[in-house]
Amino acid sequence: MALQSLHDGPVTMNTATPMTRAIKVSSWNEWDPLRHVIVGKADHGQIPAPEPALNAKVPEESDMRGRWGRRSKDSIARANELLDEFSALLRRRGIRVDRPDPIDHNLAIATPDFTVANQFTCMAPRDVLLTIGNEIIEATMSYRCRWFEYLSYRPLLEHYFEADRGFRHVAAPKPRLTDRSYRPDYFADRIDEPTRLEWTARKHFVTTEQEILFDAADVTRFGRDLVVQHGFTTNAKGIDWLRRHFPSHRVHAVNFPGDPYPIHIDCTFVPIRPGLILNNPLRRLPDEQRAFFARNDWLILEAAPPAHNEPPPLCYSSVWLSMNVLVLDPKTVCVEASEVRQAEQLDRLGLEVVPVELRDAYPFGGGLHCCTADVWREGTCEDYFPRG
């Protein structure tokens, strides 16, 4: 299997700071050659205190139920070590890497509508920042603990605004996140999985239609087309806002009835290159939605099974972070180093697979795609679905 070592490849270190090189903000899809990216940090990482959206996400059997507060110093240091190594790998491959300026996530939040005892982290910029063309949108977010997470990225966005005259910095409407934004039947301490599956199959999610809600990680970019997951973290109003905000794009709402915790699309439906998508076999895209891709000659393959039977300790995410990969260009993809089955599948599909150790950072917000946000990918806005 043609796996690229973490320490192989070009050694031309990109040591430039954000103030020493010209900035271009432009990214239209998930696979064009990556040239500039933000990689998160684990500083001040927290297990968030209970709140409506969070309670609906935590599985009944999870070791995180009933626990909250600052994560251990050792776990934060280990996560940052891995994120730093990943950043260095990308720089060696000629990709510019910027890092956020972490706020103190241990601080409580109080607004006129809610209070929470602590926050989350800034490990997962993909959840907060949505890059479409020359625009980066700060998503609304649907967790109270993540309401101020955008502040960690503001220094970078402010610099991009000064450095790139074409860059558009947009903040989506900030939600109030009162109790009316959440369904009370999800507040129960225990909800069995058959009930969860029945609810999600009929699109009865924890978030209501009280206000506009979307997380950036629910959006997958295909040039002129945006595919958006309707689930726990993005509601129909959020999808409608994206349609209105991008009138030249076609915005497609999708859902995955087999997922009892439908949060973020990048462990479920992952494009690898033009014409090829990996779909989580337990969260199959419904046939009526699948037909759109088939009409345009896109192949949807079942992702390989994860290498692990359970997530790391104190981790919200599922074992399907195995398919949370970062595509560097249409021939090259980063895969978590222990996810050998996913790596082997992508190798068989003709890609160069770059293994990246990141599993110990999973509890801080996710995998390789989650912990990054595009600033610049080469390429233009293309129409990959002419037979819409």
Count all strands and give the number: 19
Question: Can you tell me the number of structural domains?
Answer: 1
Largest sheet: 3 strands, mixed
Tell me which CATH architecture applies here.
5-stranded Propeller
Number of contiguous helices: 8
As residue ranges, the low-confidence spans are: 1-20
* General shape: globular
Helix content: 10-25%
Average of per-residue pLDDT values: 92
CATH superfamily: L-arginine/glycine Amidinotransferase, Chain A
Protein architecture, described:
The two termini are 37 Å apart. The chain is built from eight helices and 19 strands. The chain is globular, with a radius of gyration of 19 Å. By secondary structure, the protein is α/β, with parallel strands linked by helices. The chain has a single domain (34-377), classed as L-arginine/glycine Amidinotransferase, Chain A (5-stranded Propeller), CATH 3.75.10. The longest helix is centred in the N-terminal third of the chain and has 20 residues, at 73-92. A three-stranded mixed beta sheet has the order 4-1-19.
Secondary-structure blueprint of this entry?
Layout lengths: L33 E6 L6 E2 L4 H6 L11 E2 L2 H20 L3 E3 L10 E2 L4 E2 L8 H4 E4 L2 E4 L15 H10 L4 E4 L21 H9 L17 E4 L2 E5 L6 H10 L4 E5 L14 E5 L2 E4 L7 H9 L3 E4 L23 E4 L2 E5 L3 H9 L3 E5 L15 E6 L11
Parallel strand pairs: 1-4, 8-9, 11-12, 14-15, 17-18
Antiparallel strand pairs: 1-19, 2-3, 5-6, 7-8, 10-11, 13-14, 16-17
